Amino acid sequence: MINRSLFEDTKTAFTLKSDSELDRAYFLFKMISSAPLVRIGTVATNFALKAHLPVEKLIRATVFDHFCGGVNEDDCLPVIDRLYTEGVSSVLDYSVEGKAEENQFDNALEKILKIIHFCDDREAMPIVVFKPTGFGRFLLYQKKTEGVALTEEEEAEWQRVVNRFDKVCKLAKEKDVEVLIDGEESWMQDAADDLVEEMMFRYNKDVTIVYNTLQLYRWDRLDYLKSLHERAKSKGFKIGMKIVRGAYMEKERERALEKGYDSPICENKKATDDNFDGALNYILQNLKDISVFIGTHNELSCYLAMELMKTHHISKEDNNVWFGQLYGMSDHISFNLAAEGYNVAKYIPFGPVKDVMPYLIRRAEENTSVAGQTSRELSLLKSERRRRKL
Ligand SMILES: Cc1cc2nc3c(=O)[nH]c(=O)nc-3n(C[C@H](O)[C@H](O)[C@H](O)COP(=O)(O)OP(=O)(O)OC[C@H]3O[C@@H](n4cnc5c(N)ncnc54)[C@H](O)[C@@H]3O)c2cc1C
């Protein structure tokens, strides 16, 4: 039996937080637990940044420093080193989103290549991550996903996207760094999936370097995984898969309704949870072919993964199984799993303050809408403050 009260250990969870950091975290989660406050804060912050009002300092001292490692990769180093003292690895996440120009895609490429070099001599950084739309236009992925013929110019543009993926995966293979590729909106995802599969075919021959993302709020994903598994076996490559529930649920449902097609999202939370557990089960039964990065803040999913690992005699430090949480969230999961000897990594977002605002706003909104999670964070922070006072 695994210890099902593991995540109640707040001493281990917050071991790196000073009393004042603990207070700041409590204050922050208290603020973002209020939906109206988040709405007002979002509008006011966007306005202030556009109007060049001097709010950066305030943002940095509050949400930014809690959820991000810094404005550049060097800034993140102290955070990375600190986490690693407790056995938690880091995945630097260049969180600049919504760009659409070639030079911006090239900049993002240079950034990731630099991070891979950065990882080269740092044990604390075994993994990198990027978003497909960080390397190419959303509408280009969408056109390919919809099967619309590309113009000659677009074909050349797509080839540049392929080359960017290839450069990252090739260097990662050389340096033995794993690459996670994020999952995005369903109406552009097929093109990304095909491209990532091609990268797995090229670079996952004997060990897993390239990981795609399976968003299990989509009801079709388990079948997709099974068919990918068949192709991988017949062509002789390994699968890397980050499994998550998915971050774009409202957007997905709204679009399906507006355009009149069946929603790609599971009909309710329970169906998503069952789908997630199903994927976890399938992967852990097939670990010789599929490596997994379990990206979740859901405690039951983590306990289930621990239990299944035990059932299938998978050792805690097996490099084919990683747990991942976002920096600034669910430390009770990350630090307790790491203390037990599991492989754990935090996604550490970084970038200029105004560029990471969409990421920060998503975190704030997510914590508002997933009310249960915020109250869980608050109650854990409260217990730890109480424990320290005693
Ligand atoms: C390390 C890491 C990497 C990530 N990478 C990605 C990524 O590449 N792409 C991406 O999209 N997301 C990504 N995410 C975000 C992830 O999808 C969200 O954190 C996740 O949705 C929150 O779910 P949870 O597993 O933590 O658990 P929970 O809090 O238990 O689940 C909440 C999720 O369940 C689903 N859900 C909620 N209500 C319903 C409903 N009524 N019907 C159906 N489903 C419902 C939604 O997906 C919702 O977000 C990542 C998260 C982590 C921690």
Compact description:
By secondary structure, the protein is α/β, with parallel strands linked by helices. It contains 16 helices and eight strands. An eight-stranded parallel sheet has the order 1-8-7-6-5-4-3-2.
Uncertain residue segments: none
Share of helix, binned? 55-70%
Structural class, by secondary structure, is: alpha/beta
- Quick check: average pLDDT? 94
Which CATH top level class of the largest domain fits?
Alpha Beta
Bound molecules: flavin-adenine dinucleotide
- Helix segment tally: 16
Gyration radius, in Å? 20 Å
Q: Within the largest sheet, what's the order of strands?
A: 1-8-7-6-5-4-3-2
CATH architecture of the largest domain, by name, is: Alpha-Beta Barrel
For this structure, the CATH topology of the largest domain is TIM Barrel
**Total domain modules:** 2
Globular, elongated, flat, extended or rod-shaped: what is the shape? globular
Domain Proline dehydrogenase: 78-376
GO molecular function, one term: proline dehydrogenase activity
InterPro entries: FAD-linked_oxidoreductase-like, Proline_DH_dom, Proline_oxidase
Keywords: Oxidoreductase
